[in-house]
Specification:
7-stranded parallel β-sheet, 2 domains, Rossmann fold, alpha/beta, 357 residues, 14 strands
Length: 357
């Protein structure tokens, strides 16, 4: 049996040794080399052609982001970022995801973590998922053909103050996970500011990421993008990003519909796509449009079935563009997809279905 070949890139000798021990504790994996900085990582990736690479982001000579860009552009291997998610570290790791890193694993004790063994199961799971993802469908394979995303001036955005009681509009509920920080730019920036709908977005990511995630999306989207906060009034033309560590739900308060953040029910993911979609569908009924995109597992698949059964509309991302064809595949298999589309066609279909004001 051929083992999965792994290249480790980390500037700490202690971390390189610990990661090698953790990775090789699973007989499916073999660490073929270690790199002490980004330049070393690129050279060894080119010469050794590993199946997957773990990459720290803060390294000397050439940092992890620069090395990642080169590896992505040359389509050498998928990269799993293994980094500390302190305030500064989370910014860099998040940028890595947008540049095309397959996924991330947090060092639980900081940059040099003696407790890294605590994430052994997560690391093995994500390395295996990265390996199983076809090279032709990886993020890096499609980067060169992507259109350039141009920031939108805040002055160009419409910031409506219209409550649900005075305007009949749709809810677009989007669930996305692995590969999402890059793939979502195929959809949200193409939705117009005057969309006749409010968008609710759940992206599986650590709580440190979601505020920055919303801020960065707001820079590139025509619609206003905010991190969902408890008590916010739901309005058309706005994207509400699920806050890390909380479920994104809705509640009726007199004549308004408001955001409700909750930690109930207990769920593997917080926020959960299923929980968000079910709450949205409860309030918007047939005017609910569910979208399930790239990601491991099945979060959101059950809710997509419910939305469709109650007369709403559902879109699943196709295998053609999904970085990990897990969540959308589950929705399709269970009968929860009205239509299956590649990521770059989803936005147009949403606009056609929902309309503009």
């Amino acid at each position: 049996m051929n083992k999965i070949k792994v290249l480790i890139a980390d500037d700490s000798a202690l971390m390189r040794k610990a990661l090698k021990r953790i990775i090789e504790s699973d007989p499916e994996f073999e660490v073929i080399a270690s790199a002490r900085d980004g330049e070393d990582a690129v050279e060894k990736a080119r010469s050794l052609q590993p199946d997957v690479i773990t990459m720290d982001v803060n390294m000397p000579k050439m940092d992890g982001l620069t090395a990642l860009q080169i590896i992505v552009e040359e389509e050498i291997a998928p990269v799993v970022v293994v980094s500390s998610l302190t305030r500064d570290g989370s910014v860099t790791a998040f940028e890595a995801l947008e540049l095309g890193a397959f996924d991330y694993v947090e060092k639980p004790g900081g940059t040099v973590s003696a407790n890294v063994y605590k994430v052994a199961e997560e690391l093995h799971e994500k390395l295996l998922a990265a390996y199983k993802t076809s090279r032709k469908r990886r993020i890096m394979h499609r980067l060169a053909s992507r259109r350039r995303i141009v920031p939108v001036s805040v002055g160009e955005k419409k910031l409506p103050r219209i409550s649900v009681a005075t305007l009949d509009f749709w809810a677009v509920a989007i669930g996305i996970s692995t590969g999402g920080p890059k793939a979502i730019y195929e959809v949200l920036p193409l939705l117009p500011a005057n969309l006749k709908g409010a968008v609710f977005l759940v992206q599986h990511m650590p709580s440190q990421f979601t505020k920055q995630y919303a801020e960065r999306l707001n820079t590139y989207c025509q619609m206003r993008v905010v991190e969902a906060e408890d008590g916010m009034i739901v309005e058309p033309g706005t994207v509400y990003v699920g806050k890390g560590g909380y479920h994104l739900k809705l509640r009726r308060v007199e004549s308004s519909l408001k955001i409700r953040l909750s930690k109930i029910p207990n769920h593997l993911f917080m926020p959960s796509v299923d929980v968000m979609m079910e709450s949205v569908a409860e309030h918007f009924g047939k005017k609910t449009l569910g979208v399930l995109m790239t990601g491991m597992g099945d979060d959101g698949a059950s809710a997509m079935v419910k939305i469709r059964r109650m007369g709403g509309y559902t879109i699943a991302e196709s295998e053609e563009t999904a970085i990990v064809f897990g969540m959308p595949a589950e929705a399709i298999e269970r009968g929860g997809a009205d239509i299956v589309l590649p990521s770059h066609k989803i936005a147009k279909h949403i606009v056609e279905k929902v309309g503009v004001r």
